Amino acid sequence: MSRQAKDDFLRHYTVSDPRTHPKGYTEYKVTAQFISKKDPEDVKEVVVWKRYSDFRKLHGDLAYTHRNLFRRLEEFPAFPRAQVFGRFEASVIEERRKGAEDLLRFTVHIPALNNSPQLQAFFRGGEVTRPSDMCRDLHILPPPLIPTPPPEEPWLPQPLPTERRGLEELEVPVDPPPSSPAQEALDLLFNCGSIEEASSSPARGPLTEAELALFDPFSREGDPSPARREGVKKKAAEYLKRAEEILHKHLSQLPS
């Protein structure tokens, strides 16, 4: 069966407009733009609002994936540490905003991160829109039949009491909403570089050496380096040995 072309879209991420949520924590507007390579005017946009704990979880998930890619050409970006005091100061909010934006932009040129299920889940709940269509619609709307009422005074969320704020960093992000047509459109954007058309053929067995080489950024498809394979085996053996040592140490400390 045919396969969709990889990297149909250029991606651009921004993190902006920090605001105070009614529950007292700071949240940030996260925008993902998908720009078609075939038609640069074809732009799709996904917007979600996320808090610090969401970014921190995504950073940990992507850092784990990046370590297992054995990429040494670039350093995975650091992320601001959690803190109880001073996190509502403008300098701290800006540091977190920039750290989150740097994290998302780092993934753009690494397919294993850019198409990861963790990044896709991060944007779950966002709606796919076309900014150009929205602007065009604003110009073709007919005048209202009745006078538009004056705008109400904006409601400004109030921060939580001081004793409640200490729990903001420890709160767990809520579960993503169930799938919907909008979510399916979002999934299609994030899977555009990796999904394969449905086939009636039976399930395949383990990947071949040539297919495994696709996940290795230092080798070419069909020609994996024997020396590199040995290096990976050696590193894996070291990790297993270390894991066994930690397990034995843990078991030895358990009460008999």
TrEMBL record:
<dbReference type="GO" id="GO:0015031">
    <property type="term" value="P:protein transport"/>
</dbReference>
<keyword id="KW-0488">Methylation</keyword>
<feature type="compositionally biased region" description="Basic and acidic residues">
    <location>
        <begin position="218"/>
        <end position="234"/>
    </location>
</feature>
<comment type="similarity">
    <text>Belongs to the sorting nexin family.</text>
</comment>
<dbReference type="InterPro" id="IPR051866">
    <property type="entry name" value="Intracell_Sig-Traffick_Protein"/>
</dbReference>
<feature type="region of interest" description="Disordered">
    <location>
        <begin position="215"/>
        <end position="234"/>
    </location>
</feature>
<dbReference type="InterPro" id="IPR001683">
    <property type="entry name" value="PX_dom"/>
</dbReference>
<feature type="domain" description="PX">
    <location>
        <begin position="1"/>
        <end position="130"/>
    </location>
</feature>
<dbReference type="Pfam" id="PF00787">
    <property type="entry name" value="PX"/>
</dbReference>
<keyword id="KW-0597">Phosphoprotein</keyword>
<keyword id="KW-0813">Transport</keyword>
<comment type="function">
    <text>May be involved in several stages of intracellular trafficking. Overexpression of SNX15 disrupts the normal trafficking of proteins from the plasma membrane to recycling endosomes or the TGN.</text>
</comment>
<dbReference type="InterPro" id="IPR007330">
    <property type="entry name" value="MIT_dom"/>
</dbReference>
<dbReference type="GO" id="GO:0035091">
    <property type="term" value="F:phosphatidylinositol binding"/>
</dbReference>
<protein>
    <recommendedName>
        <fullName>Sorting nexin-15</fullName>
    </recommendedName>
</protein>
<dbReference type="InterPro" id="IPR036871">
    <property type="entry name" value="PX_dom_sf"/>
</dbReference>
<dbReference type="InterPro" id="IPR036181">
    <property type="entry name" value="MIT_dom_sf"/>
</dbReference>
<keyword id="KW-0653">Protein transport</keyword>
